[in-house]
Amino acid sequence: MVRATGEQPQRGRTSWRRFAVASSAGMVGVIGLYVLTATGAIAVSITIPSNVPYTVNVKHLAGSNMVMKPTTVAGHQAMEMVIGHAQITSLDQQICAGHIGVKIRAGDGGTPVDATGLVIDSTDLKASSANFGGGISIGVIDGQIGMQSEGAQPFTIDSLQQTNSVLFTKGASMTLPGLSMVPGIC
């Protein structure tokens, strides 16, 4: 394009075709990563900072090899529950950072969440009932007063609630059937 002498070039115009090409390439990449994550083709690591409280509600937890003892997490006094193997029916977690949050659900469709090496650090734990079939020991565990299920004997906890107090949750391996993550406002 030839400009007449003295004509100034136009500024501030957007080439919408270039914008569409550039943004569509990025969107295809994001959608591809989302699909690969949702189908389990790639793993995602989720880390929640220890200063962001969240709630955990469980309808039924069946496990074995449980130890519970006091600990300190990020300067907070807490109880640490370590479970060798657990099956969790109807896991419901809500994490809030400010007014934005995410609700995570799994294990509702008849297949429970399966976890090994489950570690939960919390300042408050409540349940409607707990049954330790093989017995329970209360006393000094690893130099601290605590509670321990007897060996590989099973135990069950019903209507487990940890409200605004979970400081840390980690599983060596977890299978989350029916996983649902929904963002929302807290």
Please characterize this protein's 3D structure.
Helices cover 12% and strands 54% of the residues. With 186 residues, the protein is mostly beta strands. It folds into two domains: 15-44; 54-185, no CATH class. Strands 1, 2, 3, 4, 5, 6, 7, 8, 9 and 10 form a ten-stranded antiparallel sheet that branches. A hairpin with a 2-residue loop joins strand 2 and strand 3. The N and C termini lie far apart (56 Å). The model has no long low-confidence stretch (mean pLDDT 82).
Q: Using only CA atoms, what is the Rg?
A: 25 Å
Tell me the total number of β-strands. 10
Alpha-beta classification: mainly beta
Unreliably modeled segments: none
What's the average pLDDT? 82
Instruction: Characterize the largest beta sheet: strand count, sense, and whether it forms a barrel.
Output: 10 strands, antiparallel
Number of domains: 2
Residue share in β-strands: over 45%
Terminus-to-terminus distance: 56 Å
Order of helices and strands: HEEEEEEEEEE
List keywords for this structure.
186 residues; mainly beta; 54% strand
What would a concise description of this structure say?
Helices cover 12% and strands 54% of the residues.
Write the layout of secondary structure elements.
Blueprint (H helix, E strand, L loop, with lengths): L15 H23 L15 E20 L2 E22 L2 E7 L6 E10 L6 E4 L3 E6 L2 E6 L4 E17 L2 E3 L4 E6 L1
Antiparallel strand pairs: 1-2, 1-7, 1-8, 2-3, 2-4, 3-10, 4-8, 4-9, 5-8, 6-7
